Automatic annotation (TrEMBL), chains A, B:
GO MF entries: DNA binding; DNA-binding transcription factor activity
Transmembrane regions: none
All copies of domain Cyclic nucleotide-binding, residue ranges: 14-99
The protein's name: CRP-like cAMP-binding protein
PROSITE patterns recorded: CNMP_BINDING_3, HTH_CRP_2
Keyword annotations from UniProtKB, A to Z: DNA-binding, Nitrogen fixation, Transcription, Transcription regulation
Residue ranges of every copy of the HTH crp-type domain listed in the record: 148-221
Length: 232, 232
């Protein structure tokens, strides 16, 4: 991969604790691939041929249930390792990944994983941390869905997106990739109708501002109070 | 740890790919600790001082929300590594673990983790697989809670428990540790009342049999059809 500046990727969490030479050797085995907006990176149940690091753009990871309902699992932001199904002991991808904007990823063939890890154990140590924080996030969602009203779940989902991919603008924090009300519905286990009703009410209160494929949080503090009402 | 027969633990998934000498060296740093029924192994938000492998018994892992609601995250079965908060980049335990029956665990001090992994990279490779399969499980729960009616969620939860900890008996598959209707409610994001109503109906249909802290699946095939109704 001679075309990529090593300094761009040496700071990624997956390379923490590795020396420059090690990072160079690992990068040498990767290809850099462009995924135009709307392109599929991999499909659910497809053979897990590769693992990836997102360099630029945003991906939506989604899963379809046996009876055809779709759920947004998460969004991948730059710097993240993803598609490590094989490292997790699977032979196929458990979900699909799709570029929501023009995106670029580093791509390694899956069989390189065990060999790279044997040579650079820090890779595995870093991957556990990544998978571990996704596990925490998934548990948080389970808990929210078990215990919270839909309004609080939507507030939590927007705050998480703002933290992951927020860009400060004139009118608050904008979520820095195209996101629809349907996406929010699939992230919070509710319907498009309910999301629309709640976002409209929040717009009237000056909390958020949303349009086609666009959400801004105008008053993060008030949204936080909705997500985490003070006890007592 | 001279009192423990190495052959008892050499087959554990966390030691896959390691030689006898390596396993011996890793075990030498562990203590074996007994947790009588009802004892706490660790508490949510407590300093993550140790990581563990369950040798015998069953643990309930649960999380309390800021407003005091409790959710069962999962049950730990023998052979599982748990409490690896530090490996996941945390300094505290994200949940509490409690012995639901008399249990025994191997216990390592958390600071041993990075050192053991540097020396035995297979440990990290195996831990990613464990954390990865928990992530799959958590996503499955998120998807069930997003898309399924409560009856299907309860059917799925019972089938998963039977797979994890089922013991074949005279009257079907018994879940091999004390489990209450409240536990099932906290695992499926519903109320005790709803679980009781559904389990009573299933008892009338000869699908399950349940008593105080005890659930048996009398007709796994029919329960499976409720969990995964044939398409079309």
């Amino acid at each position: 991969m001679p075309s990529l500046d090593k300094s761009l990727v040496a700071d990624l969490p997956m390379f923490a604790g590795l020396g420059d030479d090690d990072v160079g050797a690992i990068l040498k085995e990767a290809q850099s691939i462009r995924y135009p907006k709307g392109a599929s990176v991999f499909q659910q149940d497809e053979d897990a041929h590769s693992f990836f690091v997102l360099l630029h753009g945003h991906l939506r990871v989604m899963k379809v249930t046996p009876d055809g309902q779709q759920v947004v699992v998460r969004f991948v932001t730059p710097g993240e390792i993803f598609g490590i199904a094989m490292a997790m002991g699977r032979t196929t991808y458990p979900a699909s990944a799709l570029a929501v904007v023009d995106s670029v990823a580093l791509v390694w063939p899956s069989p390189a994983w065990p060999r790279l890890v044997a040579k650079h154990p820090s890779l595995a140590v870093n991957a556990i941390q990544t998978v571990g924080s996704r596990l925490q996030e998934a548990h948080t969602r389970v808990i929210e869905m078990s215990t919270e009203q839909v309004e609080r779940r939507i507030a939590h989902a927007l705050l998480r997106l703002a933290q992951q991919a927020g860009r400060k603008g004139e009118d608050g924090i904008q979520i820095d990739f195209p996101i629809s009300r349907q996406d929010v519905a699939e992230m919070t286990g509710t319907t498009l109708h309910t999301v629309s009703r709640i976002l409209s009410a929040w717009e009237d209160q000056g909390l958020v501002d949303s349009g086609r494929q666009r959400i801004s949080i105008r008053n993060p503090h008030k949204l936080f109070l909705l997500a985490e009402p003070p006890a007592g």
